[in-house]
Amino acid sequence: MTATAPSRRAFVAAGLGSLLVGCGGNGGGGTTSARPSSPPSPSASKPSASKAKSARSLRRSEPVGLSIPAIEVDTPVMRLGLARDGSVQVPPITADDRAGWYRHSPTPGQVGPSVILGHVTVGSHGDGVFRHLDRLRRGDRIVARLADGAAAEFAVTAVRKVAKADFPADDVYGDVDRPELRLITCGGPRSGDWYRDNVIVFAVLSSTSP
Q1: How many domains are there within the chain?
Q2: Which stretches of 56-140 are assigned E, i.e. beta strand?
Q3: Has residue 2 been placed in a domain?
Q4: Whose CA is closest to 181, among 126, 128, 133?
Q5: For the chain, how big is the Rg over CA atoms in Å?
Q6: DSSP state of 104
Q7: Do the Cβ atoms of 117 and 102 come closer than 8 Å?
Q8: Where is the composition biased (Gly residues) (predicted)?
Q9: What is the rounded CA–CA span in Å between residue 102 and residue 100?
Q10: 109, 119, 172, 181: which could form a disulfide with 203 (CB 3.0–4.6 Å)?
Q11: Position 194 pLDDT exceeds 50
C-alpha cells in the first residue's frame, strides 16, 4: 500500500486499522487488528460524545508541541506518515522521546479527530513520553502548540484501555462534526517488548488562543 494522503473522510480506510502504536519496545511496537472497509458515520465516535461545548475550529497548522499538565508532559511533536505496510509510523526509539502527529489526520483544532501517538516505554532508554497516559481523567487539559503560533486546548472526555485485538477503529478515526483529539499509546500486561492493550484518550476542543 502506498503512503498517499487520503482525504479526511477516507483516512480510516487507508490502513489505519493496522495502526502501529507507541509501545516502545526495542522492536518499536505492536499492531492492532481492526481494518474498517469503509469510513464510519459521524456518530461512530461515541466515547468522546459529551455535552461539553466545543470551541470554534482553527485553520490547519501542524502541531509542534504538546503539554498535558496533569501528567507532567511537555513534548515536541514530530510528523508521522505511513510505513510501507500501510501502518502508521511511530516516533523513533530514542532517549529524547517525543510524541508524533499523524499527518493525514486533521491538525489539532480542525474539525475531525486529530491523532497523536507516543511511546509508553522506549527500550533501554526507559519510560516513554506517554507512560502515564492512563492516569488522565475526564476534564484534564491537553494543549497543542501549533506552527502558526496558535494554541488549541482540549478537555479529556474519556480514557479507554482496550485489547489490541478489539481496537475500536471506528471510534478513534470516525468522522466527527467538531475538533477532537486522540492520544494513543500501549498499556496493559507486558511480555518482553509487547503490550497486550492500547490506551486511548479522547478529548474535545475547549478553547483556542491566537
Answers
A1: 1
A2: 63-68, 73-80, 99-102, 112-117
A3: no
A4: 133
A5: 15
A6: T
A7: yes
A8: 22-31
A9: 7
A10: 181
A11: yes
Residue pointed to by grid coordinates 487520503: 6
6 found inside a domain: no
Global pTM reads 0.79
Q: Which residue, among 198, 189, 196, 195, has the nearest Cα to 167 in the 3D structure?
A: 198
What pLDDT, on a 0 to 100 scale, did the predictor assign at position 191?
A: 80
Specify if 21 maps to a domain. Answer: yes
Q: How far apart are CA 70 and CA 203, in angstroms?
A: 14
Look up residue 88 and give its three cell numbers. Answer: 502508521
Q: Which residue has the cell 490547519?
A: 60
Helix (H) or strand (E) holding 171: helix 169-173
Separation of alpha carbons 2 and 14, rounded Å: 9
Residue 41 lies in a domain: no
User: Beta strand pairing status for 63-68 and 73-80?
Assistant: antiparallel
Q: How confident is the model at residue 136 (pLDDT cuts 50, 70, 90)?
A: very high
Distance CA 25, CA 30 (A): 9
Question: Domain of 21: which CATH number?
Answer: 2.40.260.10
Q: What is the pLDDT of residues 26-36, one digit of tens each?
A: 444 433 333 32
pLDDT score of 147: 98
Q: How confident is the model at residue 19 (pLDDT cuts 50, 70, 90)?
A: very low
Amino acid letter, 135? R
Q: Where residue 144 falls among pLDDT bands split at 50, 70, 90?
A: very high
